[in-house]
Design a protein that fits this description.
The protein contains 17 helices and two strands.
Length: about 375
C-alpha cells in the first residue's frame, strides 16, 4: 500500500457546498443547548419549561453529534471519490496531512488546557481538581475509550473531545478503504460498514455503544453512501433534484419528532440497535436536500450570519464548554442564576457570545495558519 509522494496540480478543482456551514452551526446548537442551563436550583428544575428543554429536547447532545458524523461522512467521502476520479487513486498520505492540519492544532490546545490550565484555575478558585482522564489516551485520540474506562473527565473542555477522537479514528480508516476497494464496489463497502456497526451494536448492546467507533460508524457510512449515490447514480441525483419540496419536508418533520420523542421511540433493545441507522438516514436526506434539491422551500445558506458562524463550528464545539463554565460560575457568584428569567436573559446570550468570541479568535489567529497549509496537499479546494 506504499505510495509515492503525490503531485498536487497547481490548477485544482474547486468545490463548495454553501449550505453545509449552516447545517454545522445548527448541529452545534443541539450540543450547546445540552450543556447550557445546568442549574442546581431544584425549583428551576421542577419548572415545566426546564423539564421540556433539558429533560426531553436537549437532555444530551447526541442528535447534534450524530449530525456532525453524518455530515463528515458525506463530505469526506465526496472528496475522496472525486479525488479518485480526478487522479486515479486516493492519496492517503496527503489526506492524513490535510486532516492533521485541520484537527490537531486546536485539539491539542484543548488537551493541554484541560490537563494543565483547568486544574490550576480550579485550584485558584479554591476547588479541588479531580481529573480522572488518562493523558495518554487523550493524546492518542482515544478519548472515547477514556470515557468508557474512567468516566467523564473533570475538565469540561476534555469532555467533548470524545467525538473528535471518533472522527479521527474514522479518518484513519476511511481513505485506506477507498484506496483498496475498486470504485465499482463502493456500494458494498458502505453496506459492509453498516452491517458491521449493526452487528457490533447487537452484540454489545448492554455496553456503552454510543461512545465506541464501531457503534457509531454507521453515521459516517450513511453520509458517505449519500455522497456516493449523488456522484455515481445520475438517476438518484435527478430524483433528489426534482423531488417536490413538500416531500423534502419529511426529514425535517421526523427530526422534530425525534427531538421530542426519541427517548420513547428508542426505548427497546431492538430500536436501540437501529437507532443510529434510522437517525442518520433522515440527517443524510436533509444534507442531500440542502445541497442538491431544486425545489426546496428554503436553503440554509440564505441565513448569512448563521452560515458565517458555521465556519467557526470546530472552535465552537471544542471551546464552548469553557465559555459556559465561565458564565455559569460568574453568574453564580453574583447570584444571577436563581430564577428562570435570569438563565434566559444572562446565561444563554453570554455563554453563546463568549463561545463565538473564543471560536472567532481561534479560527482567525490560530487555526487559519494551518488551514492555509492544508490546501497545498489538496486536490480539490473550496471554491
Amino acid at each position: 500500500m506504499s505510495q509515492s509522494p503525490p503531485t498536487v496540480p497547481a490548477e485544482k478543482e474547486k468545490l463548495f457546498f454553501p449550505n453545509l456551514d449552516g447545517l454545522r452551526f445548527f448541529s452545534f446548537l443541539a450540543v450547546f443547548f445540552s450543556h447550557i442551563f445546568s442549574s442546581g436550583n431544584d425549583s428551576i428544575k421542577n419548572e415545566s419549561w426546564y423539564q421540556l428543554f433539558k429533560g426531553r429536547l436537549f437532555s444530551d447532545g447526541d442528535m447534534g453529534v450524530s449530525f456532525f458524523f453524518v455530515l463528515s461522512g458525506f463530505l469526506i467521502t465526496y472528496l475522496l471519490i472525486r479525488e479518485k476520479q480526478l487522479t486515479g487513486t486516493v492519496h492517503i498520505s496527503a489526506f492524513y496531512v490535510r486532516r492533521t492540519l485541520r484537527i490537531w492544532p486546536l485539539y491539542y490546545f484543548c488537551v493541554l488546557f484541560g490537563f494543565l490550565a483547568f486544574p490550576a484555575i480550579k485550584a485558584a478558585l479554591g476547588q479541588t481538581p479531580e481529573e480522572t482522564a488518562d493523558p495518554l489516551l487523550c493524546s492518542l485520540f482515544l478519548n472515547n475509550f477514556n470515557t468508557v474506562f474512567n468516566g467523564p473527565p473533570d475538565s469540561s473542555i476534555l469532555s467533548v473531545l470524545w467525538s473528535v477522537a471518533i472522527e479521527e479514528q474514522f479518518y484513519l480508516l476511511w481513505p485506506i478503504l477507498f484506496f483498496l476497494v475498486p470504485a465499482r464496489r463502493y456500494q458494498y463497502l458502505f453496506a459492509a460498514v453498516v452491517a458491521v456497526s449493526l452487528l457490533y451494536r447487537f452484540v454489545y448492546r448492554d455496553r456503552q455503544i454510543e461512545l465506541l467507533t464501531l457503534g457509531v460508524i454507521s453515521d459516517m457510512a450513511i453520509g458517505g453512501l449519500g455522497a456516493y449515490l449523488c456522484i455515481a447514480n445520475k438517476k438518484f441525483l435527478k430524483r433528489i433534484e426534482s423531488m417536490s419540496g413538500w416531500l423534502h419536508l419529511i426529514p425535517y418533520a421526523v427530526v422534530v419528532v425525534l427531538l421530542f420523542f426519541r427517548q420513547d421511540i428508542f426505548s427497546t433493545q431492538g430500536m436501540i440497535i437501529f437507532k443510529r441507522l434510522i437517525v442518520s438516514f433522515f440527517f443524510c436526506w436533509i444534507i442531500l436536500e440542502q445541497n442538491f434539491a431544486k425545489h426546496s422551500f428554503f436553503k440554509i445558506s440564505n441565513l448569512k450570519k448563521i452560515s458565517t458562524l458555521g465556519k467557526y463550528t470546530y472552535g465552537l464545539y471544542c471551546l464552548h464548554t469553557i465559555a459556559v463554565l465561565i458564565v455559569a460560575v460568574g453568574l453564580d457568584k453574583m447570584g444571577l442564576n436563581r430564577h428562570s428569567w435570569q438563565l434566559w436573559l444572562f446565561e444563554l446570550p453570554l455563554a453563546m457570545g463568549l463561545s463565538i468570541l473564543f471560536s472567532y479568535f481561534s479560527y482567525h489567529y490560530f487555526e487559519k495558519r494551518f488551514l492555509k497549509l492544508k490546501d497545498q496537499f489538496a486536490f480539490i479546494v473550496k471554491g
